[in-house]
Design a protein that fits this description.
The strands form 3 sheets. Strands 1-2-3-4 form a 4-stranded antiparallel sheet, with no helix packed on it. Helices cover 6% and strands 26% of the residues. It has a domain of 147 residues: 7 Propeller (Methylamine Dehydrogenase, Chain H). The longest helix has 14 residues. The protein starts with a helix and ends in a 21-residue tail after the last strand. With 218 residues, it is mainly beta. It contains 1 helix and 12 strands; from the N terminus they run H-E-E-E-E-E-E-E-E-E-E-E-E.
Length: 218
């Protein structure tokens, strides 16, 4: 008898003669708190510079004005924005190197910009540079200040105690020994350089981390 009643009820339900039981309403706690709706307003958008510039290698933000950024690119020189990325302007087109490995702002003077030329990614499709560049007017003009044989510079660190003291991590030629390879230091703002760490003619230095409580590289 029970089986017969169940079968009859199923037929009535399929014909719409009996109302479906009401579903339990979803509560805020029953929904996915980390779903698509939660993050709908946090979408990312591409702001450039891209296309002809290739990979973005490094980015430096002016510590005194967060709207000013300098962008180092693998194949398009250095770009600058003064409006937090709304628009960009190329500021390195007149120099010999188009491939950049790093960009650094002097913590004491935001108009002093250091650029290490030569992409720092060791791979097949990589372009070389011709040393260290320095600008004292926020990127309006540049001067090559040495280490022309470094070919690939991956890090520049300015001593926060003295702007004339700067460390450069140079990779040297990727496919040959020698060159300006190792950790270099200047104490006169780039007029002269001294190799303070040389491992071998085939071994490069790719970084120069600074301990937060110490002003020098470790």
């Amino acid at each position: 008898m029970a089986k017969r009643l169940t079968l009859i009820l199923a037929v009535f339900l399929s014909l719409g003669l009996v109302a479906q039981p009401a579903k339990k309403a979803d509560t805020p706690d029953s929904k996915d708190k980390y779903g698509e709706k939660t993050f709908a307003g946090l979408t990312l958008r591409e702001i450039g510079p891209a296309l002809t510039s290739g990979r973005i290698i490094d980015l430096a933000v002016d510590p005194k004005d967060g709207r000013i950024w300098y962008i180092a690119t693998a194949g398009g020189g250095v770009w600058k924005t003064t409006n937090a990325g709304t628009s960009f302007s190329p500021i390195f087109d007149g120099e010999k190197s188009h491939s950049i490995g790093c960009v650094t702002i002097d913590p004491h003077d935001s108009l002093v910009i250091w650029v290490g030329s030569g992409e720092n990614n060791s791979q097949r499709s990589v372009s070389m540079g011709d040393g260290v560049y320095k600008s004292i007017d926020g990127g309006k003009s540049w001067k090559n200040v040495g280490l022309e044989k470094s070919e690939h510079i991956s890090k520049i660190v300015v001593d926060p105690r003295d702007s004339n003291v700067v460390y450069v991590a140079a990779q040297g030629p990727l496919w040959a020994p020698g060159g300006d390879r190792g950790l270099y230091k200047t104490t006169d703002g780039g007029k002269t350089w001294k190799a303070v760490l040389t491992i071998s003619e085939n071994t490069c230095v790719t970084d120069c981390p600074r301990w937060p409580r110490s002003p020098i590289c470790n």
